[in-house]
């Protein structure tokens, strides 16, 4: 068994990279619980994404205005993730904005078309990230570009640990990825992912780490309570929405401080 464990861990990491990014990696063997096991590595994948953002910022900053650099960094983040979280934010905004009861909210989220609430939410998300990144102190830009994707991907761990899937089993098999991890994240995965996130945040931000960490905790708690109240659980779109809101909150902490 000890010889199998490192191989399985490697497969879990590949599953996390494959799910969260458009990067080409070897395809791991499919297992029903592969994504639920992979969530512990979501913060690590966030660090991978943030590394590209920080490298791009450092390469472009000497040659372009801060606002243009920030725009290109956000475009990179959208491209490398395949609009995964932006799509979730849009669907969640349409659902919660246009639906009055649980069934209507879930029905709107299932619709692949984007509505007014979704379009406005995505525009505001992109605008907020561009402006906040451009406003970060230059000496701390790289650190926040690394930490924000880590903490925003970390939010999936507590959300999937405490919240059940909002849809029933048969619907979830058709509709999305939320049921593949909702209430299936183990306490071990939660601890591993949380420790990784905290260590990375402290190592990169040092004395400035407290505010982003607290902001991520608050955003996770508030959205979890909201999802539980409105739809009785969580969907894949909700994970994406919390991810986007948390990333913005981390950048805001950097600008505020």
Structure description:
With 257 residues, the chain is mostly helical. The protein has one domain. Helices cover 74% and strands 0% of the residues. It is built from 13 helices and no strands. It has helices at residues 4-20, 34-38, 42-60, 66-81, 84-98, 102-110, 116-135, 141-154, 156-162, 169-175, 187-205, 210-231, 236-256. α3 (42-60) runs antiparallel to α4 (66-81), α4 (66-81) packs across α7 and α5 runs antiparallel to α6. The model has no long low-confidence stretch (mean pLDDT 90).
Describe the secondary-structure layout.
Blueprint: H1 4-20, H2 34-38, H3 42-60, H4 66-81, H5 84-98, H6 102-110, H7 116-135, H8 141-154, H9 156-162, H10 169-175, H11 187-205, H12 210-231, H13 236-256
Helix pairs in contact: 3-4, 3-8, 3-11, 4-7, 5-6, 5-7, 5-13, 7-13, 8-11, 8-13, 12-13
Task: List the main descriptive attributes of the protein structure presented here.
single chain, 257 residues, 13 helices, globular
Ranges where pLDDT stays below 50 over 5 or more residues in a row are none
What is the arithmetic mean of pLDDT? 90
Task: Write down the domain tally.
Answer: 1
Which structural class is indicated by helix and strand composition? Answer: mainly alpha
Instruction: Give the helix tally.
Output: 13
Q: End-to-end distance, in Å?
A: 48 Å
Largest sheet, strands/sense/barrel: none
The share of residues in helices is over 70%
Strand content: under 5%
Using only C-alpha atoms, the radius of gyration works out to 18 Å
Number of strands: 0
The ordered string of helix (H) and strand (E) elements is HHHHHHHHHHHHH
Can you tell me the overall shape?
globular
Protein name: Adenosylcobinamide-GDP ribazoletransferase
Catalytic activity: alpha-ribazole 5'-phosphate + adenosylcob(III)inamide-GDP = adenosylcob(III)alamin 5'-phosphate + GMP + H(+); alpha-ribazole + adenosylcob(III)inamide-GDP = adenosylcob(III)alamin + GMP + H(+)
Pfam families: CobS (PF02654)
Organism: Silvibacterium dinghuense
């Amino acid at each position: 068994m000890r010889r199998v464990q490192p191989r399985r861990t490697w497969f879990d990491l590949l599953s996390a990279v494959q799910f969260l990014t458009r990067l080409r990696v070897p395809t791991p063997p499919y297992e029903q619980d592969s994504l639920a096991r992979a969530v512990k590595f979501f913060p690590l994948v966030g660090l991978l994404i943030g590394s590209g953002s920080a490298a791009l910022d450092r390469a472009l900053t000497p040659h372009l205005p801060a606002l243009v650099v920030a725009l290109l960094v956000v475009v990179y983040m959208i491209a490398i993730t395949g609009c995964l979280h932006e799509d979730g934010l849009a669907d969640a905004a349409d659902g919660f904005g246009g639906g009055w009861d649980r069934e209507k909210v879930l029905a709107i989220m299932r619709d692949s078309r984007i509505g007014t609430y979704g379009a406005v939410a995505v525009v505001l998300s992109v605008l907020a990230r561009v402006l906040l990144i451009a406003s970060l102190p230059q000496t701390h830009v790289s650190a926040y570009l690394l930490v924000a994707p880590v903490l925003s991907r970390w939010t999936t761990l507590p959300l999937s640990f405490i919240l059940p899937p909002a849809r029933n089993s048969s619907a979830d098999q058709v509709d999305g990825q939320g049921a593949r991890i909702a209430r299936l994240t183990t306490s071990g995965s939660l601890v591993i992912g949380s420790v990784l996130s905290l260590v990375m945040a402290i190592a990169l931000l040092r004395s400035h780490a407290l505010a982003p960490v607290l902001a991520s905790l608050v955003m996770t708690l508030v959205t979890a309570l909201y999802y539980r109240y409105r739809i009785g659980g969580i969907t894949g779109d909700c994970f994406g929405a919390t991810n986007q809101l948390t990333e913005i909150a981390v950048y805001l902490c950097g600008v505020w401080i």
